[in-house]
Design goal:
Layout lengths: L3 H13 L6 E10 L4 E10 L2 E10 L2 E12 L2 E11 L12 E13 L2 E16 L2 E20 L2 E9 L4 E11 L2 E10 L2 E11 L3 E9 L17 E2 L1 E11 L2 E12 L8 E14 L2 E12 L2 E14 L3 E12 L5 E13 L2 E10 L2 E12 L3 E11 L11 E11 L6 E8 L5 E8 L2 E3 L3 E2 L11 E9 L9 E4 L2 E4 L5 E6 L4 E6 L10 E5 L3 E3 L1 E2 L6 E7 L11
Parallel strand pairs: 30-38
Antiparallel strand pairs: 1-2, 1-27, 1-28, 2-3, 3-4, 4-5, 5-6, 6-7, 7-8, 8-9, 9-10, 10-11, 11-12, 12-13, 13-15, 14-16, 15-16, 16-17, 17-18, 18-19, 19-20, 20-21, 21-22, 22-23, 23-24, 24-25, 25-26, 26-27, 28-29, 30-33, 30-37, 31-32, 31-34, 34-36, 35-38
Length: 550
């Protein structure tokens, strides 16, 4: 089912309908060698509907994207490209499964029942952060339903009809606020699937365990356009202990199916991790041990870091990494860094790295001039167990440059570069603005849209209480960034409880942080009655941002 011309017709009607008394437009355009994509998009919002149009060139091919969302008698209607979440209650380790569809969708919430129906074709998502497009692939139909029996018990079913069939049922039972048990079972892409999970969340203890019975052909949706996302299998667990306020300990085991290509069986790997963090005489210490096994080949990695504040403006740190794969030479590197907070909006960081018998000096930093201009250069180290020894082993160094500039009004210019371990520089540049239409199209005009009166607001600070700008936060999927004073605010049309999280990978600055304290949910309230949330982050040593294979 192809909806290109139909969807474009709906979008044009929505954009230029005489009843469209007030509209917000967000045009964006850019170019990226990282994504090999060049193009632009226009997002729009008005009372009763929203959507976007996008077009560009990806890998030398002209592609388009479109979506229109509206409400009709309590039904949520979608036409065009959509991201379709496919999560199960047993997804306690990787809870971000999804795929892309192009077609028509209907969603309805009635009492304790949620229903989603979508029909069309799976799609291959293309584009970059400044525009999105998709190419239709395999026809499919989807029916998702969830029933909330009580605040402690819910049931769900996930069914997909395509070239391969998926039918999975699940349940989640939470007899206590700190305890939950979940079950999922059925068939995914014609392969059997069975999972049981337990989660315990206490003040000083976090325990997650899941056992998944599935073979290497299991997929949630059996089409070649499914995103290549890792699936946990067999036994997996995580144990985190916080016996003292300044000491934590973690132990984990994960068995992962990492897809190589969409039409081949996934690659199976096992990762063990043992770690500890503490603060001793003002020095933040972190130690981690990794052991991974991929294709019958074992790799062991060690990581150690130390960091200490020297007065109010200096921070010094040291990192050591070493890995050894079976039958190969060991790889190791040492990095020392010094961070100088010259002013609240300006800091410098110097790195000295010793690796492979060579010494390198790198300089990074951040500069934030109000909300108009910011620039940052940072260094990051990640552990990638599926990275070949011939490419340097599982530890890899990455340097990132990020530039944000708002010269006037709502116009924003952005540029990012990534330096790969082989020295290749990849760039992304983009520009965007906001336009308002009341009668005719005007830039920065007055808008008569109704402003939602219920809010969630708060402040983001570091461990010393200083405000942090550019921190990405999500409240029920809505993304918001903290301003120069560390403050944020999200509006909602009704009073309700929403999910809240810190999105570490979407910060406007590239400096790595770890979460010290942050709520996982919040209650909306009138702006004058809202109780501010507090999010506390801490600059982290690079190794704490460990990435499992995606």
């Amino acid at each position: 089912m192809r909806c290109g011309h139909f969807c474009y017709s709906l979008l044009l009607i929505a954009l230029w309908s005489p009843s469209s008394h007030a509209q917000i437009f967000h045009p964006q355009a850019g170019s990226s060698s990282l994504f090999n994509a060049h193009g632009g998009s226009v997002e729009f919002q008005a009372p009763g509907y929203s959507g976007s149009l996008g077009a560009g060139v990806v890998d030398g091919r002209l592609v388009f994207g479109e979506v229109l969302r509206t409400q009709f008698h309590g039904y949520g209607l979608t036409a065009g490209d959509d991201v379709l979440p496919f999560n199960l209650p047993t997804d306690v380790f990787v809870a971000d499964h999804y795929f892309f569809g192009k077609g028509l969708g209907i969603a309805k919430k009635s009492g304790r029942m949620d229903i989603v129906v979508f029909g069309g074709a799976t799609s291959l998502a293309l584009g970059a952060p400044y525009f999105s497009a998709a190419r239709a692939e395999q026809p499919f139909g989807l029916f998702f339903a969830q029933f909330q029996q009580s605040p402690q018990l819910r049931f769900l079913i996930r069914t997909i009809a395509s070239e391969k069939q998926t039918v999975i049922v699940g349940m989640e039972w939470s007899p206590r606020k700190w305890l939950s048990y979940s079950f999922s079972g059925g068939r995914g892409a014609d392969s059997p699937y069975l999972a049981n999970a337990v989660v315990i969340e206490r003040e000083k203890l976090t325990f997650k365990a899941v056992y998944i019975s599935a073979d290497q052909t299991f997929q949630r949706i059996g089409t070649q356009s499914t995103p290549l996302v890792s699936e946990p299998i067999k036994d997996n667990f995580y144990l985190g202990l916080r016996p003292l306020p300044n000491f934590s300990f973690s132990l984990s085991r994960q068995n992962v199916l990492s897809p190589v290509t969409s039409d081949q069986p996934s690659l199976e790997g096992t990762i063990h991790q043992l770690g500890a963090n503490t603060i001793l005489y003002g020095v933040r210490l972190s130690a981690n041990l990794y052991q991974s096994r991929v294709s019958a080949k074992d790799t062991v990695g060690y990581a150690f870091s130390a960091e200490r504040a020297l007065g109010g403006k200096l921070e010094a740190g040291f990192d050591f990494y070493k890995s050894k794969s079976q039958g190969d030479f060991a790889n190791q590197s040492m990095t020392a860094h010094l961070r100088e907070a010259i002013a609240q909006s300006f800091s410098l960081t110097e790195y000295v790295t010793r690796s492979g018998g060579q010494t390198a000096l790198n300089i990074g930093g951040e500069f934030l001039l109000s909300n108009r201009f910011s620039i940052s250069l940072s260094h990051e180290t990640a552990y990638l167990p599926f990275r070949a020894t011939t490419r340097g082993g599982p530890f890899t160094h990455v340097y990132n440059l990020s530039l944000q500039f708002r010269p006037f009004g709502n116009l924003q210019l952005a540029a990012n570069t990534n330096v790969a371990p082989d020295g290749t520089i990849r760039y992304t540049t983009a520009a965007g603005d906001y336009l308002y239409r009341s009668s005719g199209l005007e830039s920065n005009g007055m808008l008569s849209l109704k402003i939602a009166k219920y809010v969630i607001l708060g402040k983001v600070v570091d461990a010393a209480g200083a405000p942090l700008a550019g921190v990405a936060l999500q409240a029920d999927g809505q993304m918001v960034f903290s301003n120069r004073e560390g403050e944020f605010l999200v509006r909602f049309p009704k009073r309700r409880k929403v999910n809240f999280k810190v999105s570490l990978d979407d910060f406007l600055t590239a400096t790595p942080y770890t979460i010290i304290a942050a709520p996982t949910n919040a209650e909306t309230a009138l702006e004058e009655q809202a109780i501010p949330l507090t999010v506390v982050l801490q600059r982290t040593s690079d190794i704490s941002r460990v990435r499992l294979p995606q």
